[in-house]
């Protein structure tokens, strides 16, 4: 893939005339997808896919396009050149871009993560034994992913990684479920089997008759997967500087009224894990770590170069949409073995689902408890709870009501496959809150 | 343009095989406060094949449109299924239902296609109209988006299909400030067809924009809804999303197999007898639906799926595999978004069948309730539990419309809500831009008549 990208760069950059600038961004994958039903393989699929994005700047105008990269040099070259010609024509008569961000050459990078991955041919035999005897439904994605960026000023970045991810649910006869996501770069058969075994232990708890919990406030332990779902909401009308400037961010109270979250809450954009490239689709390289909320205080927002132009802010090379790419929440001091005792009585939520802002300026989020969510009494799990709707604000559960933060952070991978396999993960611990509001 | 006729590749097939060649083309221009913030054209094309034998499936895709790529994907998918058959012989003898159909549909516009400059000027005209007439607004966002989905299909059963299904939409979002808080409202225009078919002249949208601005102004002076269970009228937009998200998904056969609540309800009276809910394949009363599907991506001729008839749950939506499992006919609901996506069970155009009431009769039948007109973000679960945002609505007091209400939410269990329906309007309105996510995107039609029912409404 890297060779294909470099060849396309060489060809397309020579097509440019004076005062024309071109940025190319590349995204590709060689993936194996295995669908699993009832702990049996239902389908194996192989997907080879690559896309080249083109951003053409001339005459203070910007045009963008993208083409499928077929791997056939002649076909791809013809498609790319046709795109450049189209954009050249178009740039002559469209409106000027008032917040134009010109590319620069700030240095190149090449990062290739080689891992001892699971060969495609071995995947079925590696996956199936651990799940025998339970009803497991899921999808396993495996293989290499590629990202590249280059511009006509000579800057070039390449990122290549290999990973696997099994996103699954275990189901009881009564349709109670435990959800799990096992992901890594190196294949570790023992770690995989241990992870599945832990899910099966939870599934056994789901065989107890679910208890109905009344709407109200409860002490609540959120596992890391549930915390990751909350943090993910910050990418949507949250941490974006443009959203704040446009008055449609849940972080407005922190920016304008000096509201603070708990001193125990520290959150950053941190690329040190190497799960995602530091360069964005403009080829700009983000800092290794950017503190966003430090001990409860908003310290930075995500600022793209375009937002910086528009609102006179300082860019930190966020992606154009100013979404989180490699979020990291700092762990605290609550040890795993102490969680149930510290919770004593209340809710133990492994997963939350279908989150939505119910009051964005107030930071209020609604969603459902689902899958492995339990009622706890005297430090012991009693039974699963029936599905409940919650509605509460992060100013409480990450703020005034945050009692403890788990001592170990987990890596919760992004498992979305819309258009292509997503890169990246949220790294965070679980949290214990004094109160959390169930509404329905 | 992709090959319309794939018959020359049929020699590659040895067992049950689907071969699909596809190109998706997107056009998107966004304008914020008169400035062009995005201007892009993109395309994605390739070929994929899916092979079935003895209960196992193999799939492969490749981004090249060539004879070599076709041979490669058919061979790879066949190798994948052979690999599985060597290991899993428990499903020997499982045979898919055989379906065969032929259809060609090309909805490319019949007028000459316009340049990006033309469309940017089109948006600029609309933006200028809004800016001049509604200077109190704090923000104006207009987005024009087109998707051309072009597919060719050949199956080993002999089905052939070619379709060019375009959709074009324009979003207009307006914001103003009231007491320091932003107040927003959005509307969507367009539907089936290319940009040239829907957006001939910017002036034709001025009255829609006036209406949007009027609703926004009323909303900025609006009141909070009283929380609790209320008599409401859900207009087409909300009735459509309820039908799609909260009922439709629970009756997709793959989700039924995954434990959705509808699995227990087949043959039972699960709603008011007034309710007939249909996933329309391609037309209603002779009018083409927003997403017409004549042959699905498994080569099955599509037919309307009557999910609920007179209140009784009658059918799930099926692909070939689920039809085999449930020992019924496939309904033509297998659809894939991109060439590299396998077909999944997806809705097409899902709506409650119109009734006999007028909207005026329905409003006058409510003493204390709400007329809820638009939906925003929302979601539903396989239990049919749902929550939708409501960015536009009005009080109903004594059978008459009252104040606008501020943003609110509605929630509940959809099958319970259906039991409370006691009036359905006689008209039918489709939304312009329905898009559904289920590990892949897919354009869908959502809409219907207005329904009068009881629902839990959020308050302050």
Main attributes of the structure:
heterodimer; A: alpha+beta; PmbA/TldD fold; 6-stranded mixed sheet; 10 helices; B: 460 residues; alpha+beta; 9-stranded mixed sheet; 7-stranded mixed sheet; 9 helices; globular
% residues in beta strands of chain A = 35-45%
Helix content of chain A: 10-25%
| Low-confidence sequence ranges of chain B | none
Helix content of chain B: 10-25%
Radius of gyration of chain A: 24 Å
- Which radius of gyration of chain B do the C-alpha atoms yield? 24 Å
Mean pLDDT of chain B: 93
Overall spatial form of chain A: globular
**Mean pLDDT reading of chain A:** 92
Class computed from helices, strands and strand pairing of chain B: alpha+beta
Question: What count of structural domains of chain B?
Answer: 2
Which two chains form the greatest contact, residue counts included? A-B, 63 and 68 residues
How is the main sheet of chain A built? 7 strands, mixed
Class from helix and strand fractions of chain A: alpha+beta
Terminal Cα separation of chain A, in Å?
51 Å
What is the strand content of chain B? 35-45%
Shape of chain B: globular
Organism (chain A): marine metagenome
GO molecular function (chain A): metallopeptidase activity
Protein name (chain A): Metalloprotease TldD/E C-terminal domain-containing protein
Pfam family, one (chain A): PmbA_TldD_3rd
Plain-language structure description:
The complex is a heterodimer of chains A (440) and B (460). The mean pLDDT of chain A is 92. In chain A, strands 1, 2, 3, 4, 5, 6 and 7 form a 7-stranded mixed beta sheet that branches. In chain A, strands 18-17-14-9-23-20 form a 6-stranded mixed beta sheet. Chain A has 440 residues and is of the alpha+beta class. In chain A, helix 1 crosses helix 2. Chain A is globular and about 75 Å long. Chain A contains 10 helices and 24 strands. Chain B is an alpha+beta fold. Chain B folds into 2 domains: 214 residues, PmbA/TldD superfamily (PmbA/TldD fold); 230 residues, no CATH class. Chain B is 21% helix and 39% strand. In chain B, the strands form 6 sheets. In chain B, strands 8, 17, 18, 19, 20, 21, 22, 23 and 28 form a 9-stranded mixed beta sheet that branches. In chain B, strands 1, 2, 3, 4, 5, 6 and 7 form a 7-stranded mixed beta sheet that branches. In chain B, a hairpin with a 2-residue loop joins strand 12 and strand 13. The longest helix of chain B is centred in the N-terminal third of the chain and has 21 residues. Chain B is globular and about 70 Å long. The N and C termini of chain B lie far apart (53 Å). Chains A and B meet through strand 1, strand 2, strand 3, helix 2 and strand 15 of A and strand 2, strand 3, helix 1, helix 2 and strand 7 of B. Strand 2 of chain A pairs parallel with strand 3 of chain B, so a sheet runs across the interface.
């Amino acid at each position: 893939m890297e060779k294909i990208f470099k060849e396309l760069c060489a060809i397309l950059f020579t097509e440019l005339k004076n005062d024309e600038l071109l940025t190319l961004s590349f995204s590709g994958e060689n993936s194996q997808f295995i669908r699993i039903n009832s702990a049996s393989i239902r389908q194996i699929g192989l997907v080879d896919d690559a896309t080249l994005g083109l951003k053409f700047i001339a005459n203070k105008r910007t045009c963008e396009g993208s083409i499928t990269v077929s791997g056939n040099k002649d076909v791809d070259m013809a498609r790319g050149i046709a795109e450049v010609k189209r954009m050249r024509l178009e740039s002559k008569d469209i409106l000027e871009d008032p917040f134009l961000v010109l590319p620069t050459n700030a240095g190149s990078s090449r990062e290739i993560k080689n891992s001892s991955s699971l060969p495609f041919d071995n995947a079925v035999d590696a996956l199936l034994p651990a799940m025998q005897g339970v009803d497991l439904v899921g999808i396993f994605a495996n293989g290499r992913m590629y990202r590249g960026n280059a511009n006509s000023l000579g800057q070039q970045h390449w990122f290549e990684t290999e990973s696997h991810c099994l996103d699954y649910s275990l189901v009881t006869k009564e349709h109670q479920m435990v959800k799990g996501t096992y992901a890594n770069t190196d294949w570790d058969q023992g770690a995989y089997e241990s992870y599945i075994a832990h899910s099966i232990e939870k599934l056994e708890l789901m065989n107890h008759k679910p208890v109905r919990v009344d709407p109200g406030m409860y002490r609540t332990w959120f596992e890391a997967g549930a915390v990751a779902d909350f943090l993910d909401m910050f990418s949507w009308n949250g941490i974006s500087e443009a959203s704040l400037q446009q008055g449609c961010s849940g972080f407005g109270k922190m920016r304008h009224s000096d509201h603070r979250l708990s001193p125990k809450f520290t959150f950053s954009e941190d690329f040190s894990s190497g799960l995602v490239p530091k360069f964005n689709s403009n080829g700009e390289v983000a800092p290794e770590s950017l503190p966003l909320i430090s001990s409860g205080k908003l310290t930075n927002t995500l600022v793209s170069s375009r937002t910086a132009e528009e609102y006179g802010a300082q860019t930190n090379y966020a992606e154009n949409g100013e979404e989180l790419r490699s979020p990291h929440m700092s762990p605290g001091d609550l040890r795993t073995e102490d969680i149930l005792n510290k919770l004593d009585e209340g809710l133990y939520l492994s997963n939350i689902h279908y989150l939505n802002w119910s009051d964005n300026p107030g930071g209020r989020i609604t969603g459902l408890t689902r899958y492995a969510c339990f009622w706890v009494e005297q430090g012991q799990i009693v039974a699963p709870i029936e599905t409940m709707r919650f509605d509460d604000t992060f100013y409480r559960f990450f703020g005034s009501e945050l009692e403890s933060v788990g001592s170990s952070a987990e890596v919760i991978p992004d498992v979305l496959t819309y258009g292509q396999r997503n890169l990246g993960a949220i790294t965070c611990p679980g949290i214990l809150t004094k109160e959390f509001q169930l509404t329905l | 343009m992709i090959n319309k006729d794939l018959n020359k590749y049929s020699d590659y097939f040895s067992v049950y095989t689907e071969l699909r060649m596809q190109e998706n083309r997107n056009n998107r221009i966004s304008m914020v406060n008169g400035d062009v913030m995005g201007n892009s054209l993109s395309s994605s094309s390739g070929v994929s094949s899916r092979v079935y034998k003895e209960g196992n499936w193999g799939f492969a895709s490749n981004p090249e449109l060539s004879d070599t790529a076709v041979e490669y994907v058919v061979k790879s998918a066949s190798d994948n299924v052979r690999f599985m058959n060597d290991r899993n012989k428990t499903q020997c003898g499982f045979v898919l239902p055989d379906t065969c159909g032929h259809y060609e549909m090309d909805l490319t516009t019949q007028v000459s296609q316009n340049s990006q400059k033309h469309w940017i000027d089109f948006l600029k005209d609309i933006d200028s109209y809004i800016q001049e007439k509604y200077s109190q607004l704090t923000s104006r966002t207009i987005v024009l988006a087109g998707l051309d989905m072009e597919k060719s299909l050949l199956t080993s059963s002999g089905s052939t299909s070619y379709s060019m299904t375009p959709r074009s939409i324009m979003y207009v979002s307006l914001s103003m400030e009231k007491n320091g808080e932003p107040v927003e409202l959005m509307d969507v225009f367009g539907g089936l067809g290319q940009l040239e078919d829907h957006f001939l002249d910017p002036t034709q949208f001025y009255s829609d924009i006036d209406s949007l601005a009027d609703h926004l102004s009323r909303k900025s002076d609006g009141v909070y809804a009283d929380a609790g269970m209320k008599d409401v009228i859900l207009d087409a937009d909300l009735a459509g999303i309820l039908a799609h998200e909260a009922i439709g998904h629970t009756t997709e056969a793959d989700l039924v197999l995954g434990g959705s609540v509808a699995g227990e309800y087949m043959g039972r009276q699960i709603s008011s007898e007034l309710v007939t809910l249909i996933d329309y394949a391609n037309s209603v009363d002779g009018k083409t639906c927003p997403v017409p599907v004549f042959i699905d991506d498994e080569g099955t001729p599509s037919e309307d799926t009557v999910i609920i008839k007179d209140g009784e749950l009658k059918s799930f939506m099926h692909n070939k595999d689920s039809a085999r499992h449930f020992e019924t006919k496939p309904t033509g609901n297998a659809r894939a978004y991109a060439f590299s996506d396998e077909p999944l069970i997806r809705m097409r155009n899902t709506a409650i069948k119109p009734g006999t009431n007028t909207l005026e009769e329905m409003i006058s039948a409510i003493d204390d309730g709400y007329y809820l007109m638009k939906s925003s973000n929302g979601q539903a679960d396989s239990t049919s539990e749902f929550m939708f945002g409501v960015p536009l609505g009005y009080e109903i007091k004594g059978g008459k419309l009252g104040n606008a209400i501020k943003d609110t939410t509605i929630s509940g269990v959809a099958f319970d809500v259906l039991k409370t329906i006691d009036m359905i309007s006689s008209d039918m309105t489709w939304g312009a831009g329905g898009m559904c996510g289920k590990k892949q995107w897919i354009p869908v039609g959502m809409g219907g008549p207005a329904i009068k029912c009881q629902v839990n409404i959020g308050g302050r």
